Amino acid sequence: xxxxxxxxxxxxxxxxxxxxxxxxxxxxxxxxxxxxxxxxxxxxxxxxxxxxxxxxxxxxxxxxxxxxxxxxxxxxxxxxxxxxxxxxxxxxxxxxxxxxxxxxxxxxxxxxxxxxxxxxxxxxxxxxxxxxxxxxxxxxxxxxxxxxxxxxxxxxxxxxxxxxxxxxxxxxxxxxxxxxxxxxxxxxxxxxxxxxxxxxxxxxxxxxxxxxx
Length: 213
Prior knowledge:
Order of helices and strands: EEEHEHEEEHHEHHH
Strand order of the largest sheet: 4-3-7-5-8-6
Radius of gyration: 17 Å
Number of helices: 7
Number of strands: 8
Oligomer: single chain
Distance between the termini: 35 Å
Number of domains: 1
Structural class: alpha/beta
């Protein structure tokens, strides 16, 4: 069933794109051993270029939770404190350790991603002590975002789908991150084409872009 946006446009209920621009045919169904939980700040849910809506459907064992307070979701509070699981927060805090495959710990692994601006992500951590209590991990340095329609707030900043894809490829060598990123790449390229190369270069300072010809 399709949904209608506040502007009256009919959108796909899965990828949230206008029906004529639906990306669902590019979304895979991958099943890595690590479970992902994406906690999305409510302000991000209506963003036209939100990538969590492309990440979660591409993974059989991923979940999207739209909330500012986990207190409203006691079942998830219990899961995130369950010692039978290795729960980790992907967040570049001061105590964050670089993400590595599990060498000895054989517990099932759950990785929590925060979807929102840096300010909103920090607010989610501040408002939820359960997130503060979790082990924090970060991605290896040197990664470059392909999210060419946003000016990144700091070096190494990635979109939510890129962060999820990179994390899973670190944890599970051989994971097909390119399949997971396919709808994201199509989204960005489509938006640049609709914008026009001249306007794109003016707004984002791109001297050239191989994806736009």
